[in-house]
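Running this now, will post back.
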Amino acid sequence: MMSRLVFFLVALVVWVGLTWPVDLQNLVAGLIFCGLATWVAGHVFVGRSRLLTHPRRYVYFLLQYVPLFLWEVLKANFDVAYRVLHPRLPIRPGIVEVRTSLVSDIGLTFLANSITLTPGTMTVDIDQANGRLFVHWIDVKATDVEKATKLVAGRFEPILRKIFEDEDGQP
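Update: finished.
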């Protein structure tokens, strides 16, 4: 029950943030939709509710992940724009294997989406059992798994581990 309450409250805070300024109509709609979302998807966090009660995870998300993600997206946008505007279109597209030690579904999902939302890269497959992601990269800088992992996922993975996994590496 606690996980559903936390899920509802987080969803409501996001709703209020997205529909600012707050008025009665938006608040009532938010209560209805957040209640519906909690009823439909609240069970997802039942086994992991202990992770949602640690405020430091929210601090890591807001103060470390979000700024890093926005910075990486900004850099990648300029890189892709340069490649598009360059007369010879300097690209070397390919699919690389990226290793990850994240084991939780939500951690892997955040990593895959962070990679995909960064222009120039797109996660095309996840092999959760073996901790591998396959990423299409607009300009492959390394085919070696270790180097590709460092370049593509290395900046996101440590922060996502702090947010979505226990200290002992368990989901």
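DSSP finds seven helices and three strands in the chain. More later if anyone needs it.
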